[in-house]
Amino acid sequence: MTETPAAHRSSPRTSRRLALRRRALRKHFQFYSKCKNWALAQNVSVSPISWRREHWVLASVAVALTVIVGMVMPTWANAMRRDEAPSVTTLSLALPALSADQTMAGDRALADLAAAGMVPGMESAEWKVVIVRAGQSLADIFHEQGLSPTELQRLVDANVDNGAFRRIHPGDEFAFRKSADGRLAALRFDRDDHTRVVLHIDAGVVKSEIAERALERRFHVARGTIKSSLFEAGDTAGMTDSMTLKLAQAFGYDIDFAQDLRVGDSFTVIYNDVYREGERLRDGDIIGATFINGGRRFTALRFEDADGTVSFYSEDGRPLKTSFLRTPVEFTRISSRFSAGRMHPVLGKMRAHKGVDYAAPTGTPIYAAGDAKVEFRGVKNGFGNVVILQHGGQYSTVYGHMSRFAAGLSAGQRVRQGQLIGYVGSTGLATGPHLHYEFRLNGQHRDPLSVTLPKPEPLPATELAKFKQLTQPMLAQLKRYEDPRLALAR
Fold it and tell me: How far is 94 from 115, CA to CA, in rounded Å?
């Protein structure tokens, strides 16, 4: 047997590489064989002119490129073209000279506008605006601005709107303007939402200037559905927390938001915000609202009667305000109900629970359930800090475990329904902060959640006609927004 020389041997890798090369050559050969006759012009002497598929393809591509270039080039040329600047001739014209009186009048008018805060550029340059902080007095502010007590006393002695000096609140604004020698030249503040006062000090004489500032009320419509809480639904509907609280207060006589609120309940509300000079100033009022609670529909329509009293009324003109609030604390949860016997959480004995416990954070405001006289204010047995109110001859209410009483509240004082009387706490026999609330009829305890409360009288006939005339358009708008399909079709 003859051996094959090593030079003629081939490894498996070399064989595979040669096979791939042959396959590629075959593919290339087939392609070039197919395209070798592609040309825009053939040799006439060899064969006659004939258009094949390849010629049509190349001709189509050439025509398409020609059309594209024809379309793009003019646009590009226009984009790059520079228009010549128009010829402008400037003429220097002499203006008529102002008289001395006109110049002084113009300067004085500009100064007055700046003093009233109507010239933004001058205002920022000349006025120093200070916002009152909690616990500050006007004397503290004057001291911070490097002004002497004598200058403050001059303003007080002038007796010009100095009531505003005694009633300053955190967030109020005072603006100071000083003279070249550092003395106070003017003081600016807002007497109320729509009145600005500017005090000018000239040679020790104080003069007052009043500027009226127009207020604007912008109306909004919000609609929400309860998923977890009323505040969450109000926030989703675009309402502030304070406006949501006003909504709860409007329906607080009919709906107990501590126990009656259900997932799926809904509300529709028309309200306004107050704007001044294009800037939102504060929340306005609820004009009308509907609330569907547990399938029942409640309506609250704002109306001012002949005496100037503003209240909420139902569709038939009956005041929503009853003789007593159903819940005298901002809505929270009920931790213990009225019962003939329950295990006392502190004493560990079975005792009757003659009221309702509302669990709430320490410091939550507590309000008088109705117009009353303060019968007792102090500490009493297991109630801790307690207030007892006497409502006429039949009814009385008890508020226990307060952390503290409202300022100025004393025995014998008259209070109005909804007036602040104290704050939630855990004084006395209590395991946590809550309000213990009792309702008594002729000395006998009644369940505050189910006791029948007297209904108020409806509006007189003449007032009722005016009420319906004013509220019908608003009621129709509320009903339209209650149905989402109608609201979308609007």
Answer: 32
Chain centre to alpha carbon of residue 385: 36
Residue 270 has pLDDT above 90, yes or no: yes
Q: Answer yes or no: are the C-beta atoms of 200 and 206 closer than 8 Å.
A: yes
Contact assessment for residue 436 and residue 360, using Cβ atoms and an 8 Å cutoff: no
- Contact between 256 and 230 under an 8 Å Cβ cutoff? The reply is no
Backbone angles phi, psi at 55, to 5 degrees: -65, -40
Q: Of 159, 472, 156, 203, which Cα lies nearest the Cα of 316? A: 472
Tokens 């004598």 found at: 150
């117009």: which residue's tokens?
Answer: 371
For residue 27, the number of C-alpha atoms closer than 13 Å in the C-beta half-sphere is 6
387 in the same domain as 313:
no
Rounded to 5 degrees, what are φ and ψ at 463?
Answer: -70, -35
Q: 128 near 142, Cβ under 8 Å?
A: no
Radius of gyration of the chain (CA): 43
Q: What is the CATH number of the domain that holds 147?
A: 3.10.450.350
The verdict on 347 and 434 lying in the same domain is: yes
Residues 193 and 229 in one domain: no
| 274 alpha-carbon distance from chain centroid | 12
**Cβ pair 256, 328 in contact under 8 A:** no
Question: pLDDT digits over 220-254, tens only?
Answer: 999 999 999 999 999 999 999 999 999 998 998 88
Residue 132 inside a domain? The answer is yes
What is the amino acid identity at position 368?
A
Same domain? 256 vs 303: yes
DSSP type of residue 88: -
Within a domain: 388: yes
> What is the domain count for the chain?
3
The answer to whether the CB of 145 falls within 8 A of the CB of 131 is: no
User: What DSSP string describes 387-436?
Assistant: EEEEETTTEEEEEEEEEEEPTT--TT-EE-TT-EEEEEB--SS-SSSEEE
Range of the domain at 387: 333-446
The pTM of the whole model exceeds 0.85: no
